[in-house]
Amino acid sequence: MLVRHYRNGKKIHLSPVELCHLNSFSCIGCCINLYEKDSVLNEFMRINTERFKSFFPDLKTVNPTFLKEYLRELKKVNPRDFIFLMYNCYFAGFLEKDKVGCLIHPLRLNGVEMRDLVPVNCVPRGKCYRDVLWDKLPPQVREGFILKLRGSSCLEYSREVYNFIPYLYNCHFLKPELTENHYYNIVIKDHGIPVCSKLKVNLELLSEFYSPEKKEKSQEEMLYKYGEPYLEERLKELSKEYNLILRTIKLPEYLVKDGDEYVNGEHIYLLFAPSAERTEKTIIMGTNYNNAKEKLSCNDRKIARTISFLLDSVKNLYNKGKVNYLWVFLGAEKDIILPLRGSYYLMNMLKAGLKIDSITIRPSDILVYIYFQEVLQSKSHYSVDYHIPSPVTYLSDMEEYYKVNFYTHISKPLIELTGPKSISKYFIDSIEDEDFPGLLNIISGTLKKRLTEESPLTLEKLDNICKNLFRDIFGLTPEEEDRYIKELKDCLIEKIYTPACNTDYFRIEEDLLAKGILMKITDRICRFIVTTQSDYTEEFFRILIKYGFLRDSKQYAVSMSFYHMAAGGVPCICVCGSEAKEKTVDKENFHKALFDYLKYMEKERDHKIDRDFIKIID
What is the pLDDT of residue 163? Predict the structure, then answer.
C-alpha cells in the first residue's frame, strides 16, 4: 500500500499485514504491552478513543501540530508512568465497537502518514514478523487457527497471534524436537516490530545448528554464527574433556524481561576448575556473550573473538593452579532496556556464598576478577580505572540528565549541579525548534542561549528575555511584535517555566540515591566513583608491556559488567583492545602475559588486598 508523507508529500510503501485485521478480528500487539491486565489496557484505550473523538470530531483537521496539542491534553486526563508509555501508545484505541488499532493510521486519514512526526514510540513501516510466518503456514492450519479463536476479544486474539503463530510455524517447518528447546523460546520471545527477517534467520539457524549435517568451522566462526547455543555446547565439551564443573544458571524472568522486551542472554555460565590444594581463593575471568540485536546469534566479531580467547585459556589452566579458577559468561552487558542483569545477579550470589561442588566462594575470597572486552584488536590495551555508578533500575530522562551532569562535571561541587538552575537547563535543552510557533523557531538557538544564561527562570526574566529578543528583529509592526512576544512567553511558560516549577529537585536526589547513582554518608548525599587501581591490578599491565603491548591512558567507564564486582570490594581489571592502534595481534604473547599474571596472583594470594574501592567525590 502506498501512502503520502505529511511533510514532503513523498509516497511511502507500507507493508501489507493480514493479521492486523483478519475476518472479524483485529490485533494491537505492536501498539500496547500485552503482558498488562485486560482491565488496564481497555481503560487506557477507552480514554484515548474518547478524547481523540472529542478533540478531532472531523478527521480532516488532524495534523502534527494539533496532535502534539492533543497529546499534551491527553496526558492530563490519562496520566501514565514513563515505563508504561514505553510500550503503550497514546494513539492505541477502538476504531469500531469491537476492533482496535492505530487512531492515526493512514487508512483513517485519507492515506496520509504522520506517525513519525509525533513523539510516540512507533515504527510505522515495520513489518510484523508473525505475519511473515502466517503467510508460510498451510491453508488448513490457518483455517484451524481462525476457527479456534471464534468469539475471542481483540486482546485475546492479539496474544494468540504473538504466542501461537511462531509455535505453528515451528511445528510445520522446523524439527519438532526444537519446540521445547530453550533457544527456540529465546528467539520467539522478542516482540519487537522490525524483526521479521531476523526471526526467520534465527529459526533457520537453530534448525541448522541441530542438524547432523552442520558444517564445523573454527571456534571463533562458530561463535560468530551461532552465538549462545554454540557457547553452551563448547562449554559442555570442555567440562567433559578436562573434568571441570559447569553450572548453567537461568536468570529470573523479572531480570530479563520488561514489558514485551527481553534481554539477550538469559543464562549465566560458570565453568569451575578447583585448585590442586583445597582453598576458597579464586581467580575469575569473564566476559559477556550476547549483545547483538538478534536473540540467538552473536554476530559480532569482537565479542566472538573475546569469547574464543577465554575458551582457549581453559586448556592451559585447568586443575594446575594453587587457587581455583572460574570462567564466567554473563549475557548482555549494554542492553538499553535491562543492562548488566547477569553481573548484578552473580554478585548477589557471591555475597550469599556461591556454592560450587564442595567449595563456597564469597567476594572476600576473590583475588582478582579480570573482565575481557573486545580483546586482541591490536597491541594496545587499556584498563578502566574509574567506574561511574550504574543504576539498579530505570532512570527517567531527567534522572539520566542529572547523572550525566553530575559525572561530566565531576570537579564541580554537587550543590552547583543540582537545584532549580539545573532543572531549568533540562527543560531548555529538551525543547525542540519546531516547538516554537511560526517565526520563532528561526531564532531558537539565540533564545536557548539567553534562557540558559538567565536560569533559574522567573516570570520577570522570561518577560525581559522575550522583549529584548525582538529588539534585534527588524521589520515588525508594534502590533506584530506584541503578538510574537506574547506567543513566545506563553510557549516558554508552558514548556519550560511551569514544568520546572512543578519539579522537586530534592525528590530527584532521593530517587537517584535509591537507584544507586548517589550515596548517603551520615546525613550528606554524595557522588562517588569506583576505582580498581591497586598494585595488584597494575601488575597485569606491567606484564603486558613486558610482552610488547601498549598501555592507553586512564578512562572512565559506564555500564560495564565488572562494575558490581568492583563496588562489592573485588579487585577488578578491565582489558580492552583499542582499535585506534595498529591491527597486528600476537595472541600467543597475550596468553603468556595472562598466565604470568595469574601465577603472580597465586604467589601473592595470602597478602592483604585493599578492598575499599569506593571513592567519594564530594
Answer: 76
